[in-house]
Amino acid sequence: MRQYRTLYLAIAFFLLAVSLSGCTGGCAGQSKPLNPAGGKMAVIAFYENGWGSPLQPSSLPSFQAHVQSIDIVAPFWFTVNMDGTVEDKHNQEAMDFARANNIPVFALFNNKKDVVPGNAAMLTDADARAKSIAEIVSLVNKYGYDGINIDFEVMPAKEREKLTAYVKELADQMKQQNRRIAVSVIPRVGTTEDINGVYDYAALADIADQFVLMAYNEHYPASAPGPVASTKWVEDNITDALNDVPREKLYLGVAVYGYDWPGARAGTAETVDYIPMTEAAERAGRQGVEISWEEQAQVPFYKYEKDGMTREVWYENDKSLRAKLDLAKKYNLPGIAVWRIGFEDEAAWQVIKEKLGK
User: N or C terminus: which one in the chain shows less Cβ crowding within 10 Å?
Assistant: First the structure.
């Protein structure tokens, strides 16, 4: 009977562990380590379903082709509305592929920004706050995610404490279920307080398991043309963040896209094309123009004529990506976060494999 007693004890300890973790049938893969890449730098792959345009393709083919180089996938499937409801665009095909390849899934929850600029109702309205948190937790349990990534942007700086409290409440819920929480934040150097002031870096880093510094959009649709992420700007923001964020939690967000500005711009975002890295290079070829290299910023750019107007394109390629990965290695960061897969070319993956040992 001794062997049966041993078996019964083993089963009892297993059931106790499951009970303490809050894990039920949907919890497959939830006990992944903080950095699943082990001693190597991790790659977090931001994922989109695609938006019905050749310039906004699904991330799935890239995910499938490069899964061996990806450590976490963070799909942009959820948007939190002002009333606390959450738009659900979960993609089960991508989820099944992640599970089959043992890739942790951190669902990204973004806030609705195109209705009311500065939206923060889910932070300030008690009913909306409670509803949104309950819906996020419910969705995580429904689909069995390993964690979440909170990417709330364009919120008033005065709501700084409310955002921190919101993330803390979600973190408590996640940790009770042995799940992880990440936050994505806008850089502070070279941006204005109305954009970056809502983030208490130190407090958020203390709460979160991963802190993603979105080191892109140095220049953006409503700005003058320029680098999406110059090397010095990125490095300045890394060193700034490290004043408040533990090195082992700081992941460097890197871009694989660009913008095409009209020279005589109307000053609105609608006049600018948001284009993948692949399209930026192909567009130069179609226009028959030479791609230039801005040595100080360490990024490519070019100009071309269209409809009697000079247009200007600044973007990221494998060479500029290499410079960012060198910075991540210089500061001994645990990994990078790519916005977003499906925009990059094969040369970019070769750089990632070479630099990060993937």
Answer: N
CA dihedral 316, 319, 325, 329 (to 10 degrees): -160
Whichever domain contains 169, its CATH number is 3.20.20.80
Task: Indicate the number of domains in the chain.
Answer: 1
Given a contact cutoff of 8 angstroms between Cβ atoms, the answer to whether 113 and 147 are in contact is no
Q: Kindly state whether residue 339 falls inside one of the protein's structural domains.
A: yes
Q: How many CB atoms lie within 10 A of CB 231?
A: 19
Contact 302, 290 (CB under 8 A): yes
Q: How far is it, in rounded angstroms, from Cα 227 to Cα 187?
A: 15
Q: Would you call 299 exposed, middle or buried from its count of C-beta atoms within 10 A (0-12, 13-18, 19+)?
A: buried
The C-alpha atoms of residue 325 and residue 346 are separated, in whole angstroms, by 16
Residue 7 domain-assigned (yes or no): no
pLDDT in tens, 152-208: 999 999 999 999 999 999 999 999 999 999 999 999 999 999 999 999 999 999 999
Alpha helices (runs of H) in 208-276, residue ranges in sequence order: 231-241
pLDDT digits (tens, 9 = 90+) for 229-248: 999 999 999 999 999 999 99
Collapsing DSSP to helix, strand or coil, 271 comes out as helix
Distances (CA, A) of 111 to 123, 146, 179, 186, 259: 11, 20, 21, 14, 23
In a domain, 284, yes or no: no
**Around 203, how many Cα atoms within 13 Å sit in the side-chain half-sphere?**
14
Supply the DSSP string of 84-119, one letter for each residue: S-EEE---HHHHHHHHHTT--BEEEEEEP-SSSTT-
Three-state SS string over 280-347 comes to: HHHHHHHHCCCCEEECCCCEEEEEEEECCEEEEEEECCHHHHHHHHHHHHHCCCCEEEEECCCCCCHH
Amino acid at 293: W
Residue found under tokens 């004043």: 243
73 within some domain: yes
pTM (2 decimals)?
Answer: 0.90
Give the separation between CA 245 and CA 10, rounded to whole angstroms.
40
122 vs 315: CA distance, rounded Å: 34
